[in-house]
Protein 1
Amino acid sequence: MNKSPAFLLLLFCLTSLPAGADWQQPPLSHNLKPIGQVVKAPDFTLKNMDEEDVRLSDFRGKVILLNFWATWCPPCVREMPSMERLQKAVDTKAFKVLAVNQMEDEDQVFAFTGSLPEDPTFEIVFDKKSEVARAYNVRGLPTTYLLDKKGVVRYRAVGGREFDHPEVIKIINQLIAE
């Protein structure tokens, strides 16, 4: 039987891997980029999982982790558990995680959240036409903004993050103390 060069290369690669090779992805970063200029976060109103209106401005006075994500985005999926741990680690009277889903419906997100190690206690809202993402100039998922108590964007992260990292919690607590 005549084998193609591509088949032989694939066969070589698969058979030359050590037994039990680790296919894990590299760890997520925890770095947040400070925003050098004063940028007021655009207000918005979106529906949550219960089809209730959620307004960003309703959370003024709290530090907000505003995360743009989708279930089909691998780094988004990877960072979700850390957002839940963060929500539980920081005083919810002074802090809020708000996850803005992009272009998916409630059924897709409900099925996804059911597959997580624990149900999210943070707010998930739906930006079905990506209008809010455009207002925030989101170019890729996940993109996250950290807003201070006055609704000013202070930090940004593009790509997956480990949000319950001690350095991130330290930044959040500093913003809460301001």
Protein 2
Amino acid sequence: MKYPEIPNDITRQEYQTCKAFFEKQPVIIQRFLDAQAGLLADAMTTVTYELHFSLPDQVLAQSRQVGELVSMSIPNDERIQDLGGFWNRLKKQEIRRDLLKKLMELEQSPDQAISTSATLLRFATASHMVSNMLPDGRSVHYLAEKDEAIPNIPLDDGLQSAITQASDAIAEDAQLEEGRGELQVPFVPAARRFFLPQWVAFDSQDNLLVGSLSEAEAYLQSMQRYVQILHRASSLASYIVFSEDYQHKRYGILGQLVNQGRALGRYKTRQIIRTIESRVEKGSLNRGLSLSMPYFDDQALEMKSVRFEAIPAGRIMFVPAFVVRASRGEQAKVSQDTRLSMPTRKHLLAQLKELEMAFFS
């Protein structure tokens, strides 16, 4: 499929050059770099205070004298690289920044073999983070509403039939009987419209597809973690954004994250409305009411909330008009809040309007 265009510049050429250069290395060197890339990728994506990695013993590098690829050796005492340790643990300082700094220093080394090794290791690590650490998903198409920067409405391509992709089913974790295969449980059609069906918690009507709200929130966190790894890969090697795999995964997960994040916000808003109605029936809302309205921020890519007071604290009898008035006042503030993107404001205003209408009479 065709993904949103990224402006063609020198960074695209850098990606193509690094990719071609890596593929020209002997297979044994490629495998060594891949193994080291796994260590660096873990340091980039987890809480790590110490890291030990190695440069290969030799690489193919562009000779400055003859302009051709020649095999260059790296001195043994230069191969082993140690980062972090006791002080990092004491200060709770993660190794990620030290690693980025070390790679830059190695790439600036006057020794061409060391410089080339660092460049190859940076490419291998970023590629590993994108291609190996993140599950691939379905080929999806998203539509974007007016003023939307991130397409997030899954397009029904008419392929939701009995003929499904391999990713349309998961194997249940259970003890298998001898001679029987794994039990495959297909995802519901609403989930199969998305990039990663295993992390879909709401359908198009905001109905909960999983067992609990906490499970839906865990799915959102998994998608946020997915995006975080993509972002950290691009912080390590900015040119990786021109990888077809990166574009495919970023397009797929962003649309799903925004869609499901907004659905979660709307679901929680309706829970708030039901809670207020329940407490009104019990007569337990006569001492004030403060609300925290959850919403999904499509710039920060996370759930946030706005707090406002509907009824001042004190012995004040609940009147639905108080909630209506408070909601309208908050809508006026949100509509003027330029810190929020236009789609986020629209999303939040719709939730506040739903709250208003629930108590308007």
Protein 3
Amino acid sequence: MPDFNLDDLRAELEVYAEPEKKRERSAMDERVIAGFEEIQRFVSSHGHVPRHGEDKDIFERLYAVRLERLRMRQEFHNLLSPLDHQGLLSESAESSVGDGEPDLDELRAELEGATGSTDITELRHVRKTVDKRAAEEIANRTACENFEEFRPTFERVKRELKDSVRRALPIQKLDELSLKEIHDNQFFILHGQIAYIAEVGKDFKTQYDRRDSRLRVIYDNGTESDLLMRSFQRALHRDEAARLITNPDLGPLFAQEPAEDDLASGTIYVLRSKSEQPEIAAHREVLHKIGVTGGKVEARIANAKLDPTFLMADVEVIATYGLYNVNRVKLENIIHRVFGSAKLDLEIRDRFGNPIKPQEWFLVPLFVINEAVERIKDGTITGYVYDPMTARLVKLEP
């Protein structure tokens, strides 16, 4: 009887093995995963599993109940085990029960005023009305089916935060976050995620004769929630790291008193490259470098063909605009925000062979640049952005 090498036999059989089919996740699965990830973030931040107890934060107590329910059902184990790098589903993990069972009457009182739906991401109490209220407070999230429509908006906001076009103000340091500041097209940071108020429903009166309305909130992790404005307001105040993201208003560009970054006088210049590189020459008529200098433009471009900033080629001056008491940083941030969607994405080599990505080159027609400069001068530019599809400045939604 011949000897078989089991390793060789296994390798040959794997060729004929049916490939594993990837399982499509349902909306319910996505919601369960999102709820479990919130628990994981809590554990990472606090160093222990969520627990019950009178001295615990309401969200910790909600997470404790949610984790218990996840542990009880095998189908959730099958779904979440590949993601459970902290071992939270194991009964041997640190107990989330704490000092006895939670006081449901007290917990119900703390959740008064909230509303919502059902399932493991929320608490269920004895009375049906209380079930609805509890769910609203933790803002049960679902997968946002049309998130790709919102993705560019989130990317723009992140870029504007990085460029200091927007600021993130701590909620806890504000005197009061009024409902007026929670409106459509407003951004916040809640539990470490950017939250976008996509829709605000009609106002209505609560049973206490207070104004409220329902929101559609989109988060930058691809989920969304449908909750009341007052519930969202409470969540912001309870999150110590919550932030209000300001609108892209940089303040006065032209100041009466010069600041540290101000130029006594300056010039916005628009250049066109004389490079013969095919990818540059093909777009020469609409490819422009927009910059600011406090000296003479001619001196700035004297050695252009040796400078990767100028695409390693000579340039011609297409237009110049004189400015006074202009803040260089604010002006450059404005230019990058307005024309960010048309920024040239090109890597070239400097004279030493090092790869460089030139900045401040944009695929924008000259007439649009002229309009942008006029709006910079009159202060209205903060309300506009360049649309490459229509080749014009379009007004941002309020």
